[in-house]
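User: Predict the complex with manganese (II) ion.
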Amino acid sequence: MRAGHPVQILDRHKLQDQPTNEAEVEVFSVPSYACQRRTTLENRNTVLTDALSLLAENAELSAEEGRGVAFRRAAAVLKVLPEPVTDMTQLRGLPCLGEHSLRVIKDILENGASSEVESTKQSERFKALKVLTGVFGVGAKTADRWIREGIHDLQQLKDSRQTLNRAQRAGLEHYDDINQPVSKAEADAIGEIVEEAVASVLPGAQVTLIGGFRRGKLTGHDVDFLITHPEEGREVGLMPKIVSWLESQGFLLYQKTTRNSYLESDDGPARPCSNMDRFERCFSVFKLAEDEKRRAGQTQSHYASAEDGGLKPWRAVRVDLVVSPISQFAFALLGWTGSKLFERELRRWAGHEKTMSLSSHALYDGTQRTYLRATSEEEIFAHLGLDYIPPSERNA
Ligand code: UTP
Ligand code: MN
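Assistant: Here is the predicted structure with manganese (II) ion placed in the model:
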């Protein structure tokens, strides 16, 4: 600058190679948005990520969404590291690791456990929130209200004579089944039933397994399916027909169907896309019979029944069905494959880095003031300027 022109480049101007120290710990480099990263199910840091996930869960159950997201982001960064973390110096320069998360990690590395995580696990409030929100149809708000009324467990809930809605009554009745993980084999057996239902009421309609199972998870808390028809419009009114068929065959213990009310507007999405989308959607509890699984070529002993400790020939499984018009299919597929954090990060990337707005229905470009069309997930990643990440690598 003093010379007023570019000067000759001398050795001392160049970055110097630091002498490498064999004992030096490995330092990692990770992009800051989860949707820029490939997160498989292989996680070398489960002790740390389990701890952070528990704190995230506790924050979410306590209506502290911001803190919840911060812990989720921190856990997601640790999930992509190629080696177990053994030393705090390895975390230097990594994104999304806030002061609080670092404190928890340090505690675990130095003491084998985090005092905050352990005390949260033991806390009566956390335990009660977990048990009560384990009832299908009960969210954090309802659970919190019940706890303030002195209800901490299922027996107290039953004794309290609280008025429960239909979903909650089903949730309570099938509590043990619904809180038992669903296996891939069970998901496949349910897939066959859904295929049969769909083929019976609208030949040509297509069923796709979405959610965690599409990402390659071996268990899930529910099974999610996306249904469409290659001819736009043919999917209208499809859900009630599928539900009627399933009901007539005795497959449903509970169902609630909601309507599609999504319309594109010339000014773009009315508000930043909320994650509550507006497809025709059915929240249900399936009755999965043992012989349905056998028919699907699987064998397993009978399901245990909680009441008498005996065996019953079926179990209850939470199933979500979503119907999308073919024009929105790629967006629905991307939006419903998850993980939840991956989806959140995609929307944050779209908004903050691209001035775009992404939902499970559409991608709106705020600069060009147009909707960007796509018929595949690959095209959506391309619109967003991101490398394509396949479902098995979206396990952030
Ligand atoms: P799930 O809650 O079923 O999660 O939502 P999951 O990844 O399948 O994991 P399990 O079931 O706990 O094993 C699946 C996807 O659907 C989206 C979520 O963002 C998630 O990515 N989703 C869910 C919505 O878009 N809207 C909703 O109302 C619910
Ligand atoms: Mn799911």
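Residues 211-212, 217, 220-222, 224, 275-277, 335-336, 338-340, 343, 360 surround uridine 5'-triphosphate (ligand 1) (CB under 6 Å).
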